[in-house]
Fold these 2 entries.
Entry 1:
Amino acid sequence: MQTTSASPDTQADNLRRAAIDKSVKGPVLFLFLNGAFWLMASTILGVLAAIKQFAPDFLGACSVLQYGRLQPTHLNALVYGWGVQAGLGVMLWLMARRSGQELRTGKSVLYVAGVFWNIAVTVGLLAILLGRSTSMEWLEMPAFVWPVLLISFLAYAWPMVFMFGRSFRPEGFMVSSWYILAACFWFPWIFITANVSLHCLPGLGALGAGINAWYVHTAILLFFTPVALGAAYYFIPKITGQPVASSQLSQIGFWLLAVLGGWTGMQHYMGGPLPAWMPAVGAAAAVLLLIPVGVVGLNHHLTTLGKHNLVASSPTLRFVFFGALFYPVSGAILALLSNFSTGATLQFTQAWYGFQIVAVYGFFSMTVFGAIYYIVPRLTGCEWLSVRLIRNHFWFSVYGIGAIVVTSLVAGAQQGGDLNSPEMWDQDFMQLALNLRPYIIARAISWALITWSNVWFLIHLMLMVAGLGRRSSSPTLLEHDHEEALPHAAHA
């Protein structure tokens, strides 16, 4: 929590931060709590969807519980129920802190927008389960849902843009502010473009599939990635007490992502009925994205030099650090899927699912977990109750996501080889899917472990929001012997 200092400047700074936290407390906790509910639901659906892949008769022949409905519901709950909501909560808090601006007006609008967001997601997911899916990946919810989601998102984005414009911080902005501001503009752009094109412009044919693939890629690269990187660039220096190693590298990473991120997607249909230049440009952009991935990774490494011991003690740094490690992993998998020599084998296989999970859960969600473990105590005035629950949440998440990603890549390589093998021409697609049974069983077990940790994460968070956390002036550390090693800024 906050520390007391005899310096008037320090006291004034602490009071200013406390006022900012108080102003955003309600909307941020609302987003975190609802997002955590959807996260638990998504992981449960992930378990059921995986089981239905290798045991189609599980839970009977009920159409609502078939794989073709459970899988898109699982991903949409992860993306819109958890991902966007939790991302907005982190964005709002970060922008308020970095701009030095309180949320003075419009809280009721944010609550209403949050309620409508959750109602729209609920209706959309129920529609998918009842067979009203549009069959467009990440856009399966009926067409009447997306305008509600868009307006709700803009209701949250506007205050953040306003805070950025009125910022009075004399030392200027950290790169984290750039990423958060960019996400406020990029998500509405890609969301409007994809939905208008696919729902309002009939007769697109194969181009519609390309636009759908473009949306999935850009949602990952231009929303989930900047939110996670913005959080990492804030919390890593905050916890370690060291400034960002290189402002030049941080700017290079930002602008390369901004320039290249919007060109990817069409390579998902390499060899398909699209103009050849479209997949080629997408593939080139995806491979070139390895440059900003490497630049950001190098910058984070240089920033944490000499402070890696804090990963053992700080829950926030541990989650953010390992989340940041998944960023180059997701970049490498994207390059494998986009490269013409390997992508032709891996496209339309389990490897594509592995990329989505490593990006949205491994990189984005792990970083957001770290942010939540830092932000919530400052909003609720109490500390996390259980070190064991935090440790279990971390290790179940790391092992679970690692297993899902590895098995998805191996399964994708086998599946792609079978699909392209002349000897397998007489086997139907269902048989090829059943050949992946061991990998899918491992996925179901992994999602079950993650679900178990997320149930306790939700309970832990609910207790914190209810003000039932530990009353202490010292933060909850994973190793108490390292408390003195934490820099002064980590408590603020």
Entry 2:
Amino acid sequence: MSTFAKRKAPPSSEATCPTSFPTFPSTNNFLTDVLKKQPELYKSLKDKKTKLGVTLGHCIKTGIDNKGHPMIKTVGLVAGDEESYELFAELFEPVISARHGGYAKDAVHPTDLDVSKLTDTKIDPTGKYVLTSRCRTGRSVRGFKLPPVTDFEERRKVEALVVKGLLSMEGDLKGDYFPLHGSQSYAPKPNGMSIEKEEELRSAGNLFQEPDSTLLLSSGCGRHWPDARGIFHNDDANLFVWINEEDQMRIVSMEKGDDIKSIITRFANGTQQIQKVLQAEGADFMHSEHLGWILTCPSNLGTGLRAGCMVKVPLFSARPDFKAVCGKMGLQTRGSAGVDSASTGGTWDISNADRLGKSEVQLVNIFIEGVAQIIRWEQALEAGENIDEQVAKASLPAKY
């Protein structure tokens, strides 16, 4: 067992790296791929520390302790704070490039939340195929350590600051904050939300769970659970903000049907209002020209955005090339219950595949155009038409 593996959820003070280079049994992640090729990186980086106290050990522990996912290549690397991406750039950059299919060290990530630039294409004109649509992303607050390394008091400070911003929202964004049951960090609800409220959120698929995966536990995200974790939602229950899970904030805008413009508009307005309150308090979101919005896992850098819908396309999804075709169109497919799950009755969760290198507007447009095309193919198959020639030409829309 490695020195890292002896600590299931290390406090931020336990950050010393072993003197000798760690061994990797049979890992399946991008981190160990890089370290195996460049073992000298470990020696050159292991004694460095960010201004907030984050070391290489904090960042690589989850990748060394875990073999990875049998079906999906995991990253194996997390950031402990914003500076981690700069101080340990020699390691982060090749991992980021590998995870995102090639991303140059001097690349500039475009950020664009101008909803007027969204395509006018209607995803599901008939209303027959799309069940629900959503857009989610993360945000981090500058000046604080990220969830894998943050301590008890700092996590509470993040919660207080973010909740202040959320409770200031008005109009269709107005809502309330519900700490997880058992959390004692929020005075208006001293023991968190009720069991009944948890069940209501859980049954609707809007409650995040206590981490039980070794990836999250060994990263340190589960320390002091459930303290200072919770969920905000607006009165209409179509905007949710998760606080202090894997990221400091996960923002989700959702509703039934395919009105993605409405969903993105709500999402953009919400994030902008939260940012204004943070700025008034002398804080801001973590962001860089190179990496976009800074989040815990390198897989979510850039936009951190996943625009998706639950869509029922049993005929098209029965094709053996279904997932491959979606990939060519810049789309990612998941079963109806998430990653690795099977489809139920031909219902799939389809979303944009990329996060980094394209703006929010570009990724949402890729999603809209792609799913609209899939639905057109589904309708053609229902009519008994042959779509093989069309499908063979499937690709990412040239203008995006």
